[in-house]
Amino acid sequence: QEGTKVPSKRKQKTSIETSDLLHKKLLKSEQKNWNNISPTYKAMTKRIKEKLEELHNMYTLNSGSPRMRFGENVYFEENGCIFLAKADDGERNAEILFSVEDLGFSDAFIQRIRISPDQRYMAISLKSENSEEATCIIMKLGNLPVVEKVIPSIFSFEWATNDVLYYTTQKNLKCQNVFMTTFTYQKHTKLVYTEQDARFFVDLYCTKDRRFLTINSSSKTTSEVWLVDCRHPFESPALVQARTTGLIYHIEHRKDQLYILTTYGEPAEYKAIFTDNYIHRINLDTYCRSYKNSKLMKAPVASSGKENWQLVYALEKKTKLVDFEMFSDDCIMFLKNTGHLYLNVISFVSHSVQSIKLPTWACEFELESRPEYTTSTCYFQLSSPVHPPKCFAYSFKENNLIEQAVQEVPIITNCHTTRLLAKSKDETLVPITVFHNKNSKELHRRPLLVHVYGAYGIDLNMSFKEENLMLIEEGWILAYCHVRGGGEQGLSWHRDGCQHNKLQGLHDLRACIMLLHQLGFSQPKHSALAAASAGGVLAGALCNTDPALIRAMVLQAPFVDVLNTMMKTHLPLTIEEQEEWGNPLEDEKCMKYIKSYCPFQNIKPQCYPSVFITAYENDERIPLTGILQYVQKLRKAALDHASRTSMKGNWIPNIILHVQANGSHCDSCWEHSLNE
Predict the structure, then answer these.
(1) Residue 285 a catalytic site member
(2) What are the Peptidase S9 prolyl oligopeptidase catalytic domain coordinates in residue numbering (predicted)?
């Protein structure tokens, strides 16, 4: 319009330059601070590193990596190498097929392996510590394995046939394109599918019977699946069910029927429900998968729309199905109920269900990588934060659980596991899992480390780590708070802790820590709080609202500036994340709500606990600028408070930031995690 002022490009450029200069200044200041402080911990660091290496050699190295079985052949990965062995040989005469170092990828680790159906080709993804993107190496196997093709910036990949590979590419943390490439006759690559909605992420999966390859496009709350018929891999994908807001589903296949794990329909009744002569009843709470599914349904391949979905098995409301695996005559469900793991085996032959409670110490499981569809035995590993992975097997023929004794891993006998329920502000019961040394006396005097996450419907990580065992041996108490926003009790547990319910996760965390102290597990002056990534939101919020509950806080690549981050749509994850945090740009109520709990926005002069933060200079998920500004503001508030109350003998907390030039937001190899 006439009279409208045109913004000056010079001013915009100056603003960006000023921001960059401020970032560099803050980073340089924190690096100098770290260099001054870190020598103080040199002796402690040396002692801890030696102890962790000892525990790693004692437990993790002996536990072995997951195996992939193809008939008489067994494939496995160890120390950056992929081996092929005969099942009867017990891996004594294993042949090396691939070595990371031999191909010049010394700084990378193996992320995923896929063997073609005829075992002529092997696809491997390699990922470095400093990048989210992986590189795929396709090897032609034989007497002398050779590199057939290299595909950069890859995320997921699956073999549709012996020589046709489908894969997705990743750019700026987004996966939206699916390609197909062939390796014999007329070699070519073509684009098969493109996702247009920035909220959706695409990955690939192959059904256990290898009949279909599925293209899965999913947001935080909605999904859509396309089928590629592996008998006709060059034909266009077929849609199963068009995306419907709030509907999540995942596909398996058996005998011309699609088996669908889904959130579709009304919440399940108290008891599990069976159709098609599944008359066995189970009085059991079960959780939804990481997909947050709550039902198993089925439909004919030819008419796969949701109007044709028939219920096979339904799970109770506050339950979670952790994983699901389809076999030729059975399917296995790994379930959680108030922290306990269960195994449900549904027989398609006898139309029955067997439920087995797994050992009480178990908190996590890992299924054998790509188990054979027609196998008579299902292999898996169980672990906990303080129990190294232990091998188990379920025999479909014998209908029983077998504890494997193949590895010489010492059994942890001196650790006690306790499961508690804390009453939150709205009287919701929040699960807590506690570990401590059986020989510890006067637990109220022992140091306590509390873990929290509470976001995206993802469970708190409870896999084995050497540092947990070290802390138990040294008399620490470990507590894992399964607050709302996570996925521990299914879809509703996540919904009750995201967007406009985020504060409920904070109330849960406060209630958990207070209950621990009331029951004599440590006390505030001996308590520390640990969180990573989005767990930093609740940890940082508690640090503002209830700093007296803890003495120290440790954060790894934390999300602490929710409001400013969600206002920046140019960042790669902002649009996708709106389903978790809301959209403050278009909703004023949402903006005010985020502002009410955002750690950065609520810093004020008060007595804070000491804080140690690890961040990564090239982190694509959590902008370093937000962490730098958070630390600066937190340190200033702590000093302001101390200067006002210095006459009362108030202490000044340590607020330390370690910015690592290498490393990325995701899991890393053992050597890197050891140094960290």
Answers:
(1) no
(2) 463-647
